[in-house]
Design brief:
By secondary structure, this protein is an alpha+beta fold. Helices cover about 40% and strands about 30% of the residues. It is built from one helix and seven strands; from the N terminus they run E-E-E-E-E-E-E-H. The strands form two sheets. Strands 1-6-3-4 form a four-stranded antiparallel sheet, with no helix packed on it. It has a three-stranded antiparallel sheet with strand order 5-2-7, with no helix packed on it. The longest helix is centred in the C-terminal third of the chain and has 74 residues, at about 100-170.
Length: about 180
């Protein structure tokens, strides 16, 4: 409709990629704009319509996201919209420019290195934990055998004392 706005909405999880293409009919000079709004009506994307007829955003929080078109011209227009979200977005080359991709690649390389360091540290820590567990189990076994030996020696010494004292008193004729 002339000089009106129309919105479509899509429920998105947090940090989800949301992209779309739109086509204007008739395609002559269009006076208007497109907005992508987050769940709290925060503007995530805004463009005065023109080429390219494409948008892509990442949701900042979960909730209902809106794509709104405003027709500022006095003629009636038709807008055909195709939206994709999450894994449906397969052509990442249209989403970001080359310089953005290079920055993202650098960040991904840095994150990959950090992940590899964390993985190596986890493997090292797992090995240390196994060594410490083995040492702890070995020490526990040794302490157990030491206690058994000590208890055995004490019982034998007690029995020997009883036998020795009984013989001593029998020889002295006190018993």
């Amino acid at each position: 409709d002339p000089e009106s706005s129309r919105c479509i909405s899509e429920d998105l999880p947090e940090k989800a990629l949301f992209a779309g293409d739109y086509k204007l009919e008739p395609a002559d000079d269009f006076a208007g704009h497109i907005k992508v709004l987050g769940p709290l009506d925060a503007v995530l994307f805004e463009r005065t319509t023109g080429d390219p007829h494409h948008f892509a955003v990442t949701s900042e929080r979960a909730g209902l996201h809106k794509v709104c078109f405003h027709n500022a011209s006095p003629t009636k227009r038709r807008v055909v919209v195709t939206v994709r979200k999450g894994v449906e977005v397969d052509d990442h080359s249209q989403i970001a420019r080359k310089d953005h991709v290079e920055q993202i690649e650098k960040q991904l390389d840095k994150m990959r290195e950090m992940a590899m360091q964390i993985k190596e540290e986890m493997i090292y820590m797992r090995g240390r934990e196994e060594e410490m567990r083995d040492t702890n189990e070995s020490t526990n076994r040794r302490v157990l055998w030491f206690n058994i030996m000590t208890l055995t020696i004490l019982v034998v010494m007690g029995l020997w004392q009883i036998y020795y004292l009984k013989r001593y008193f029998q020889m002295k004729k006190l018993i």
